[in-house]
C-alpha cells in the first residue's frame, strides 16, 4: 500500500515538473489528476502538498540560473566579493511584482480558495488564457519587443506582471507562468525575458506560499506524509531541469500559440468529461 502511494507521488511530481514551467497551469493539472489518481491522505495534507511540491520545481530554477540570480561574485582569484548591482536591482523589481500575491496570500487565500479550486474553474481559465495567448501572439506578430533584457524592465512593468500573477493565484487553471507571460507580452517584453522573469519571480512567491501552507498545516508529519512530499519534490525537481531547458530553447524559435491551443482543447475536454460523461 505504501509503495502505491509513493508511485502516485512520483506521478504527481512528473506532472508538476512538466506543467509548472509550461504555461498550461500546474495547479490545474494537479487538481484534474487528483480526480483520477487520489493520494490516500487527509484533505489538509493534500492542500499543503499541492503547493509545497512546487518547491522541487523552483529549485531547478535556482540551479539552472544561479549565475543570473546570485548577486555576489565569489571568484577565487579575488580577495573580496563583488556585488552585482544589476542583480540586486532585478530582485527589487521581483519584490515589487510579489506585492499583489503577498497581499492575497495573507488575507484572502483561505476565503476564496474553497470556492474556486474545482474542475469547472480550471476548465474555464484554461480556455480563457489559451485564447489570450493566441490573440496576443497574433497581435504581436511582426512587432519588435520593447524590452529585451531584464535590466530594461521598469518597476512599473514589474508591478503590472505581478498583477497578472495575482489572477493565477485566485483562479486555478490560469497558470502562474502563463499569466505572468501574458502580462509581460502585453507590455512589450520579449518571450525569452518574459519567461526568465517568470522563472525568477516564482522563487520568492513559491517559497513564501509554501512556508505559509506549512505553517498552517503544522510540522507534524507522519513518515508516510513526509515520504510522499519529499518524493514528489525530488521528482518535480528532476523533471523541471529538462523542461526548463526545453522551453528556453523552444521559445527562441517559436511563439506560445501551441500552448494556447493545448489549453483550449484541454479545457473543452474537461468540461465535456465532468458535465456529460461523469455527470
UniProtKB/TrEMBL annotation:
HAMAP family noted in UniProt: Undec_diphosphatase (MF_01006)
Family statement: Belongs to the UppP family.
Enzyme Commission number, as recorded: 3.6.1.27
Catalytic function, reaction form: di-trans,octa-cis-undecaprenyl diphosphate + H2O = di-trans,octa-cis-undecaprenyl phosphate + phosphate + H(+)
Natural source organism: Eisenbergiella tayi
GO process terms (BP): cell wall organization; peptidoglycan biosynthetic process; regulation of cell shape; response to antibiotic
Physiological role: Catalyzes the dephosphorylation of undecaprenyl diphosphate (UPP). Confers resistance to bacitracin.
This protein's encoding gene: uppP
Protein name: Undecaprenyl-diphosphatase
Annotated membrane topology: Multi-pass membrane protein
Subcellular location: Cell membrane
Amino acid at each position: 500500500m505504501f509503495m502505491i502511494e509513493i508511485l502516485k507521488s512520483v506521478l504527481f511530481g512528473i506532472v508538476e515538473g512538466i506543467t509548472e514551467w509550461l504555461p498550461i497551469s500546474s495547479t490545474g493539472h494537479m487538481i484534474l489528476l487528483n480526480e483520477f489518481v487520489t493520494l490516500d491522505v487527509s484533505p489538509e495534507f493534500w492542500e499543503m502538498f499541492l503547493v509545497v511540491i512546487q518547491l522541487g520545481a523552483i529549485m531547478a530554477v535556482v540551479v539552472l540560473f544561479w549565475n543570473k540570480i546570485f548577486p555576489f561574485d565569489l571568484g577565487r582569484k579575488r580577495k573580496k566579493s563583488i556585488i552585482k548591482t544589476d542583480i540586486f536591482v532585478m530582485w527589487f523589481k521581483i519584490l515589487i511584482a510579489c506585492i499583489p500575491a503577498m497581499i492575497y496570500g495573507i488575507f484572502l487565500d483561505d476565503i476564496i480558495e474553497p470556492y474556486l479550486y474545482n474542475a469547472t474553474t480550471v476548465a474555464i481559465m484554461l480556455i480563457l488564457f489559451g485564447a489570450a495567448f493566441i490573440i496576443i501572439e497574433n497581435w504581436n506578430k511582426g512587432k519588435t519587443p520593447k524590452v529585451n533584457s531584464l535590466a530594461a524592465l521598469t518597476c512599473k512593468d514589474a508591478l503590472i506582471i505581478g498583477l497578472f500573477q495575482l489572477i493565477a493565484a485566485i483562479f486555478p487553471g490560469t497558470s502562474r507562468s502563463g499569466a505572468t507571460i501574458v502580462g509581460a507580452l502585453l507590455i512589450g517584453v520579449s518571450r525569452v525575458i518574459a519567461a526568465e522573469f517568470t522563472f525568477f519571480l516564482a522563487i520568492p512567491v513559491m517559497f513564501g506560499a509554501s512556508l505559509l501552507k506549512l505553517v498552517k498545516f503544522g510540522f507534524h508529519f507522519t513518515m508516510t506524509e513526509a515520504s510522499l512530499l519529499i518524493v514528489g519534490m525530488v521528482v518535480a525537481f528532476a523533471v523541471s531541469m529538462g523542461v526548463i531547458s526545453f522551453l528556453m530553447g523552444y521559445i527562441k524559435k517559436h511563439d506560445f500559440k501551441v500552448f494556447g491551443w493545448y489549453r483550449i482543447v484541454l479545457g473543452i475536454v474537461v468540461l465535456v468529461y465532468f458535465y456529460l460523461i461523469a455527470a
